[in-house]
């Protein structure tokens, strides 16, 4: 257990699965390294620690048993390359699936998740205590909230609120995400809207390194089916339904002259597959593409809880004076892959320039575009990307400006009173994020991924609170206390230990291989001190004191007096007493048995206790009765004679089974020097020695 904590998250999306490895200092170590503790744990990663493979795990719905060896194996092996071996068992593993798995039938979805969990437990040593928590399909709202955490964490809005003052006591940024199947929005409304729509907000609770809570009230919603791929399929389906008995369908969202085949459900048919479908022929008229893709927003749907944005879904009013959004995934790729709208960090999204660049590209003939692909005019893009970018651009523009209402920078004037903040330093690259929208992929060379938000939340949950009764880290409904739907990230405080601490920890934390050596070393030191430093009188006093302590200790001896016959016999036979005596003290050792029977008592004292708990024979029952103190003589100060007085609970529970006789009979036996008790004990010893597994293990002769 070193100074670093590690975490592994698999983002199981609709088009593929990507593994992310993160690390952060243990909270104790982080507090020692930082003077400013009112900040979140610093979670870091490296581009080498990320790997993505295609397709998504949702494609294994009909054959879930293949998801492990054919898909997950590569990702797990990649993660294990970067997590130290001695930290694997302490590293939590999460596989969180998104839109692709959400649209899978229930039975197939469950089968895939069960197989993922089983394979992960079988093939990795990662920490996976609860599959329901660690392997699941997360709602779009959760995905959006994690993304919001990641964006604000990297931009610095959490750690430096004064440096990110947007006005109106607001210092956080909005988050937009668009994948292949769904789109999400997350933002903290202004104070007025937050109060007006309090029931629609999610309460998020984090914890800084000093143990103080950070609370935010965030609105999050998702639009399933509004990702670029699902929107494209809906678009093609409407295009096919608009005309009948037609062999070719003109498509303004394809470059002029481009031809593709599609199935009836709008999916592209790969050339050479032999499947039949409909032919789409590109016309390359981008303005018409914008018009035909606009109805896909479904803004005409009834709004049951005003205000609403896309698809009739309620969303609090967005105050773009203080709500500045960053967009990731398709928002970034669609503006960067071909059009270079933000190829440089200091170039911001500009609607007017962006739309012009898209219009110029889509109006080109397909033959010219193919030549440009070969010459790498637009960088490393393939034909499929070039065919899809016109529709994707139209969809992005419609969602941003007609759906969400982001002002069109370059055409519409912005509020001149907005404070201009330059995000730089430890969090964020040196560029402005004060425009209504900015597409990003990385901030300070760290990818803005919702998986980072998940790990920030997990790392914060490992910080111990600074007060008793502090509320847990996590998120849920916006109500006081811990709501019924509150979700915890699963972390807990793990103390940091130095290398020296680790060496001692290994002795006492269950690494049994270290214990014998440690005990032998301690015993040698004690023996040296005993034989070299003590006078004869001190040795004698030490032996007597040790015998009394050992004779009185233990829950099983609670009915035993210090002067009892049983205690005297135990003191004579216990291993330390023999070790520290050289045989000259007759007061400590009273020989009452002949032919080495005292040595037999010593053997049982050393090894019998382990056997008692595992024996299911009648001998085991007899031994248990003998050592539990049921028949131990107790001194009566006023009587002066030791008598047997078993406890009421002992007699009531097992007295009849053990055949207890009246106390007077045992008193007579003790008066005769304990002969009956010793004889009975010797008989039990004789019967049990030959069958003792401890004797066989240590080579002790019967």
TrEMBL record:
Source domain of life: Eukaryota
Entries under Gene3D superfamilies matching the protein: 3.30.420.40, Exopolyphosphatase. Domain 2
Coiled coil residues, start to end: none
Gene Ontology CC terms: Golgi apparatus; membrane
Location of the region described as Disordered in the Swiss-Prot/TrEMBL record: 603-634, 677-702
Pfam families: GDA1_CD39
Transmembrane feature ranges: 515-533
Single GO MF descriptor: UDP phosphatase activity
Basic residues biased stretches: 692-702
InterPro entries, per the entry: GDA1_CD39_NTPase
GO BP of this protein: CTP metabolic process; UDP catabolic process
Binding site for ATP: 180-184
Record keywords, A-Z: ATP-binding, Hydrolase, Membrane, Nucleotide-binding, Transmembrane, Transmembrane helix
Keyword Kinase in annotation: no
Residues of the active site: 143
Entry similarity comment: Belongs to the GDA1/CD39 NTPase family.
Descriptive protein name: Nucleoside diphosphatase
């Amino acid at each position: 257990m070193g100074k670093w904590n590690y975490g592994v998250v698999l983002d199981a999306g609709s088009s593929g699965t990507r593994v992310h490895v993160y690390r952060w200092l243990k909270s104790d170590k982080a507090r020692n390294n930082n003077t400013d503790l009112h900040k979140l744990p610093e979670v870091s990663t490296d581009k080498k620690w990320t790997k993505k493979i295609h397709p998504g795990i949702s494609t294994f719905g009909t054959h879930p048993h293949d998801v492990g060896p054919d898909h997950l194996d590569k990702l797990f092996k990649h993660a294990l390359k970067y997590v130290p071996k001695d930290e694997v068992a302490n590293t939590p593993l999460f596989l969180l699936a998104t839109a692709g798995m959400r649209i899978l039938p229930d039975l197939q979805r469950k089968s895939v998740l069960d197989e993922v969990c089983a394979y992960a437990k079988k093939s990795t040593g990662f920490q996976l205590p609860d599959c329901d928590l660690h392997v699941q399909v997360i709602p779009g709202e959760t995905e959006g909230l994690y993304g919001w955490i990641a964006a604000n964490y990297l931009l610095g809005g959490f750690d430096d609120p004064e440096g990110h003052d947007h006005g109106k006591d607001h210092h956080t940024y909005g988050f937009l995400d668009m994948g292949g199947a769904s789109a999400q929005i997350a933002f903290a409304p202004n104070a007025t809207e937050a109060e007006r729509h309090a029931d629609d907000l999610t309460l998020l609770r984090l914890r800084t390194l000093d143990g103080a809570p950070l609370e935010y009230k965030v609105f999050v919603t998702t639009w399933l089916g509004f990702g670029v791929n699902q929107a494209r399929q809906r678009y093609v389906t409407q295009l096919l339904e608009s005309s009948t008995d037609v062999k070719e369908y003109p498509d303004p969202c394809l470059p002029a002259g481009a031809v593709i085949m599609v199935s009836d459900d709008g999916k592209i048919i790969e050339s050479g597959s032999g499947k039949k479908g409909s032919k789409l022929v590109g016309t390359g008229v981008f303005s018409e593409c914008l018009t035909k893709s606009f109805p896909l927003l479904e803004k005409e749907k009834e709004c049951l809880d005003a205000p609403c944005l896309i698809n009739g879904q309620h969303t609090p009013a967005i105050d773009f004076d203080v709500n500045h959004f960053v967009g990731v995934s398709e928002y970034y790729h669609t503006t960067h892959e071909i059009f270079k709208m933000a190829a440089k960090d200091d170039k911001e999204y500009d609607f007017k320039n962006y739309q012009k660049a898209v219009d110029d590209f889509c109006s080109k003939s397909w033959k010219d575009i193919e030549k440009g692909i070969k010459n790498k005019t637009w960088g490393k893009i393939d034909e499929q990307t070039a065919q899809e970018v016109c529709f994707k651009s139209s969809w992005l523009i419609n969602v941003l400006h007609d759906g969400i209402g982001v002002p069109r920078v370059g055409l519409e004037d912005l509020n001149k009173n907005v404070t201009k903040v330059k995000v730089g330093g430890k969090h964020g690259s040196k560029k402005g994020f004060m425009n209504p929208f900015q597409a990003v992929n990385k901030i300070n060379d760290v990818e803005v991924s919702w998986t980072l938000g998940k790990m920030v939340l997990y790392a914060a949950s490992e910080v111990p609170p600074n007060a008793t009764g502090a509320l847990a880290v996590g998120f849920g409904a916006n109500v006081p206390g811990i709501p019924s739907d509150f979700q915890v990230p699963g972390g807990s405080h793990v103390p940091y230990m130095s290398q020296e601490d680790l060496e001692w920890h290994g002795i006492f934390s269950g690494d049994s291989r270290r214990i014998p050596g440690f005990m032998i070393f301690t015993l040698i030191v004690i023996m040296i001190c005993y034989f070299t430093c003590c006078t004869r009188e001190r040795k004698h006093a030490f032996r007597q004191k040790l015998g009394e302590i050992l004779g009185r200790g233990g829950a099983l001896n609670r009915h035993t007096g210090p002067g009892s016959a049983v205690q005297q016999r135990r003191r004579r036979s216990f291993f330390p007493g023999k070790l520290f005596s050289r045989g000259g003290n007759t007061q400590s050792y009273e020989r009452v048995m002949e032919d080495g029977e005292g040595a037999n008592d010593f053997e049982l004292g050393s090894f019998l206790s382990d056997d008692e708990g595992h024996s299911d024979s009648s001998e085991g029952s007899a031994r248990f009765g003998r050592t539990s103190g049921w028949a131990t003589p107790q001194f009566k100060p006023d009587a002066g004679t030791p008598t047997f007085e078993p406890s009421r609970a002992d007699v009531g529970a097992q007295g009849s089974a053990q055949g207890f006789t009246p106390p007077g009979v045992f008193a007579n036996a003790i008066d005769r020097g304990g002969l009956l008790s010793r004889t009975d004990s010797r008989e039990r010893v004789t019967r049990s020695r030959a069958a003792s597994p401890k004797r066989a293990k240590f080579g002790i002769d019967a």
